[in-house]
Design the sequence.
C-alpha cells in the first residue's frame, strides 16, 4: 500500500459517509485474516496500517513460556531471553514479517474481505440512520419490482421493500414514481438492514389527514380509530375537543376539498368520516352508517354485538362484499351480527308506539299526532290518584261518530 491508496480510501469514506478509522481497522483485520489463512497458517498475526503513508507493519505474536505446547504461537523463555534480557514468562513478543511474502492468493483474499467489510460498514450506517425512523412517513422513489410483485423503493441512503400485502390494491407503480410510504419495520439481518414500508397502513391515512386538515394537526379534532381496506374504502372515527367545531365538517372541508386532497394520494380510496361516541352502542350505530339500524344488544365480555336492521337497510349495512359491516367491526372492536328486523331504529319504533297509544286521546280534538307522540316520549307516567287516559276501545265506544266525522269539523273542534 502507498499514499495513493490512502487518498483513495479518503475519497471512498467521503462518498459513502463512512468513518476512515473504521475502514482502516477493517482493512487491518482483513489483512490479518489473509496472512493467517494463506501465508502463515496457525500463527497469530497483527497488522498495522499507517493512516498517513499507507505503510504496512506485519507482526507475528508469540507468547513466552517455559514449556512449548504450540510452537506457532509460543516461544521458550531461554530463546526469548537471547533477544531481550528483560522478558518474562507470560509476556508477548513481536516478530516482524516482510509484507512481500504476500502471495497472489493472499492479495485476492484481502480484496474480498475488504469489500465485504466495506459493505458491512455501509449497511450498519444505513441501519443506524433508519432504525429510529420506524413509524414515520417518508417520500420514496420506486427503483424496481420483481416477479413476486414486490416493489422496491429508494429512501435516499437505503432501499426498502413493499410486499403486495402492503400495497394499495389496484395501484400501478412505475420506476421513478414518487410515493409517500409508511415505514413499518426496520431490522438488521445477516444480509444487511431490512426496511419494510407500507401504503396500506392506517397510519398513512392518519398522516395525510394531519397534513391536509388544520384542526386535526392542532388537536382540535382527534382521530379516535381507523379501519382501512387500502384502495377501496376506509372509515375514520373523529371527535372534537371544541364544542363549536364540527369534527365531520372539518375533515370533509368545503365541498369535500380536504378529504379529496387526502384520497388523491390514495388512488381515490373512499374515506367515510363518522362521529366517535364514548358509548359502544352508539359508536357501533355510527360505524354502520350510512345504514340506519335498530336496537343493539352488546356482550362486552365476549366483544360481540347483535344489531337489528330493517330489511330495507340490511344490504346497505352489510355493504358490497360485506365491506361496510367488516370495517365497522374493525373500527369498533366488536364482532357484529346483523339480524333482519321490521323496525328501522329505536327512535322510529318509539315514536310509532307513542303515536298509537295517544291516537284515541287526540282524535276528538284533532291535535297533531306527531306532537302527541313527542309529548308521550318525554311525559311522566300518571300518578295513581289521577284519572287514567281512556284506552282506544273505550274512546271508540264513547265517540262512535269520530271516525265518520268530516275532516273540517275535526279540525275546527
Sequence:
Amino acid at each position: 500500500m502507498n499514499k495513493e491508496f490512502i487518498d483513495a480510501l479518503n475519497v471512498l469514506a467521503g462518498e459513502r459517509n463512512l468513518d476512515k478509522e473504521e475502514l482502516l481497522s477493517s482493512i487491518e483485520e482483513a489483512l490479518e485474516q489473509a496472512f493467517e489463512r494463506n501465508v502463515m497458517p496457525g500463527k497469530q498475526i497483527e497488522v498495522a496500517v499507517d493512516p498517513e503513508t499507507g505503510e504496512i507493519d506485519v507482526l507475528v505474536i508469540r507468547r513466552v513460556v517455559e514449556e512449548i505446547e504450540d510452537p506457532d504461537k509460543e516461544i521458550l523463555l531461554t530463546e526469548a531471553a537471547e533477544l531481550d534480557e528483560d522478558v518474562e514468562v507470560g509476556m508477548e513478543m513481536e516478530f516482524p514479517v516482510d509484507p512481500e511474502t504476500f502471495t497472489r492468493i493472499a492479495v485476492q483474499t484481502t480484496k474480498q474481505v475488504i469489500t465485504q467489510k466495506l459493505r458491512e460498514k455501509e449497511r450498519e450506517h444505513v441501519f443506524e440512520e433508519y432504525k429510529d425512523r420506524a413509524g414515520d412517513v417518508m417520500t420514496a422513489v420506486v427503483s424496481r419490482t420483481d416477479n413476486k410483485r414486490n416493489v422496491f423503493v429508494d429512501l435516499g441512503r437505503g432501499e426498502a421493500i413493499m410486499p403486495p400485502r402492503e400495497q394499495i390494491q389496484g395501484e400501478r407503480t412505475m420506476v421513478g414514481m414518487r410515493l409517500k410510504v409508511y415505514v413499518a419495520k426496520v431490522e438488521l439481518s445477516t444480509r444487511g438492514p431490512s426496511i419494510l414500508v407500507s401504503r396500506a397502513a392506517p397510519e398513512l391515512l392518519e398522516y395525510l389527514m394531519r397534513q391536509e386538515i388544520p384542526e386535526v394537526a392542532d388537536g382540535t379534532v382527534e382521530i379516535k380509530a381507523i379501519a382501512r381496506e387500502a384502495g377501496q374504502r376506509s372509515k375514520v372515527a373523529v371527535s372534537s375537543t371544541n364544542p363549536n367545531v364540527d369534527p365531520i365538517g372539518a375533515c370533509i372541508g368545503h365541498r369535500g376539498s380536504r378529504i379529496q386532497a387526502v384520497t388523491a394520494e390514495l388512488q381515490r380510496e373512499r374515506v367515510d368520516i363518522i362521529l366517535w361516541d364514548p358509548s359502544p352502542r352508539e359508536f357501533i350505530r355510527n360505524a354502520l352508517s350510512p345504514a340506519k339500524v335498530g336496537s343493539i344488544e352488546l356482550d362486552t365480555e365476549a366483544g360481540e354485538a347483535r344489531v337489528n336492521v330493517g330489511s330495507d337497510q340490511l344490504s346497505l349495512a352489510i355493504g358490497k362484499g360485506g365491506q361496510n359491516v367488516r370495517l365497522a367491526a374493525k373500527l369498533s372492536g366488536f364482532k357484529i351480527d346483523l339480524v333482519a328486523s321490521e323496525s328501522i331504529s329505536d327512535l322510529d319504533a318509539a315514536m310509532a308506539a307513542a303515536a298509537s297509544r295517544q291516537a284515541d286521546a287526540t282524535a276528538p280534538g284533532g291535535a297533531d299526532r306527531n306532537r302527541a307522540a313527542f309529548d308521550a316520549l318525554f311525559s311522566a307516567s300518571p300518578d295513581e290518584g289521577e284519572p287514567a287516559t281512556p284506552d282506544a276501545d273505550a274512546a271508540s265506544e264513547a265517540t262512535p261518530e269520530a271516525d265518520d266525522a268530516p275532516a273540517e269539523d275535526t279540525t275546527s273542534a
